[in-house]
Specification:
The chain is of the alpha/beta class. The protein is about 40% helix and about 25% strand. The longest helix is centred in the middle third of the chain and has 13 residues. The protein is elongated and about 60 Å long.
């Protein structure tokens, strides 16, 4: 069952959104304040979040930035108070996957949610076993041929994006945006290349001839699916 999280301080609107999005195989959990949202998110994982920006005790943007900084890449849709370009840019740069301007049609929101869920790979459940590797992103434990591998937080974020999209090329721009949480304008140009090199040094038998973390020249990187 898909688990959706809704942060909306307007009780009437929140009930309406929940009713519009709930399905037999989809549940919606609601919160009305930042504090209650943080408590809920500390104890449960969700497939998608809808975070209102203006709340009684702060901004949903602050929560979004915090989640991305912690390596949480759960898809997020932001309802914005208006359609000003500045609001849209601010939300996307903070790490949002989509936005919808208020007032909005519940049918349109439902369509946006469905589209976002369709294009998001299922989150890994427990350890992922790939050849000689065992990656447990929940426990932040990584092994190669039975030996533990120590990864920095940035290396973990990068590896997770690549593994969750294994077999597909992920562009440099998307990797920078996902790993550095919308702060791409502050990232040195070679930061991604340096992190890729460090990952290869820890995971590949021969980092100069990588079997798994491959470069797709002119496009980006991929975690290759082994036969």
């Amino acid at each position: 069952m898909k688990q959706l999280f809704l942060l909306e301080d307007d009780e009437t609107l929140g009930r309406g959104i929940a009713l519009a999005l709930e399905e037999p195989d989809r549940a919606v959990f609601r919160a009305g304040t930042l504090n209650s949202a943080r408590e809920a998110l500390a104890h449960r994982r969700f497939d998608l979040m809808i975070l209102d920006i203006n709340l009684p005790d702060g901004s949903g943007l602050d929560l979004l930035r915090q989640l991305r900084a912690q390596g949480d890449f759960t898809p997020v849709i932001l309802p914005t108070a208006n359609d000003l370009e500045l609001d849209e840019v601010t939300g996307l740069e903070a790490g949002a996957d989509d936005y919808i301007s208020k007032p909005f049609s519940l049918a349109v929101l439902r369509a946006r949610v469905n589209a976002c869920i369709r294009r998001t790979p299922d989150a890994p459940a427990g350890p992922i076993i790939l050849g000689p590797f065992v990656f447990d992103f929940d426990r932040m434990e990584y092994h190669r041929k039975g030996q533990p591998v120590e990864l920095s937080r940035t290396e973990q974020k990068l590896l997770r994006v690549l593994v969750e999209n294994r077999g597909h090329t992920v562009s440099r721009a998307r990797l920078v945006d996902r790993v550095w949480s919308g702060g791409a304008e502050f990232v040195e140009e070679n930061a991604l290349s340096v992190t890729i090199k460090r990952l290869r040094g820890k995971l590949e038998e021969d980092p100069s001839q990588p079997e798994y973390l491959k470069t797709v020249y002119g496009l980006g990187y991929t975690w290759a699916v082994q036969p």
